[in-house]
Amino acid sequence: MLFSTATGYALRALAALPEDGSFSLAKDLSAKLELPGPYLAKILQGLVQADILESVRGPKGGFRFTRPSHRITVGEVVAALEGPDAMDGCIMGFPTCGGDHPCPLHDAWAAVKTQVSSSMTEATIRDLQLMDIRHQKEAEARPPKNA
Question: Is the pLDDT of residue 119 over 70?
Answer without folding.
Answer: yes
